[in-house]
Description:
Low-confidence stretches: 284-308
Amino acid sequence: VREFMNGSLKATLNSFQTNDNQEMIYDEFGLHGRKWLTDQNKYDDRQLWINNNGILLTSDGWKTASMGLGLLTAPDGSKYYGLNTEVIVGSLLLGGKLNITNSSGTYLIDNNGFTANATVGVNTYSVGINPSTPSDIINVKVNGVNKFYLDTISNDLVFRGKITGGSMNINNKLYINELGNLTSYGTIASIGMIDGTTYSYKTEIDGGKLTTASLYVRPLSTITGEFSPNSSGYVQLNPLQISTTPNGAITGFIADIFGYVTCNFINGGTPITAANYDSGTYAFPPSVHYHSEYALSSHSHSISDVSGLSSILSSLESRISALE
């Protein structure tokens, strides 16, 4: 800016020093400044006019005014003191308000801080900064609705909408790569909005559904255990453990990947393996029993419930008859 200012002032001074044939005329309308063009036998269209209220410059022989300084008249007829021109150059601009409008939008500085807005299609987008009002210290709005702002109650920076980007790393705890894979080393919780300023924090994700092409779950421990649904819709378990007590005590059964089934109420809690199954050294519980101390009601199992066990039952009955 300084280089432009100095160069502009120097060039203008040089043109003034060589600008001859000047005329200054006083009449009842003020002071008129103009230049006689000898080669064209007429006055230059660029002229000056000064009266008690201000200064005007023209570039077209007073068909229009190119610059006004002093008491100016607005289109609505109101009066104001100011400067109206195409270009203002300076190193310091002091004032209480600033309004800039161009093809990209409107930029306003006033008692509400700084606001930039534009209408694109049917939507109006705005960005605001207001240091004196914490709730509006920074905000991004679409049609007047906050999408990005500071919540002054929780002191949280709130974003509403969709984030689009290549990847994300939050405090080296949550990663989302460019393929959309998410890795979390913390708790993923469900957060429900109660009203505009209050949130309900939960310890589980509920109230909806998880839709995905594939799901793979593995515990972060040395114990082997994982599950994932396959393309046929079946869940592959490795292993399956059912426990129903709040503290995790096992009162149901375990189906382990190494080839045994354990249930506290089947075979006295001793695992059923391929070896003792073939030898018949296991015992089923009564037909009516509980699988858990937390079960709501008793129930019975029919061998027809499990495909392929009819022949096994017949074999067991034959062995029992032989023992009798």
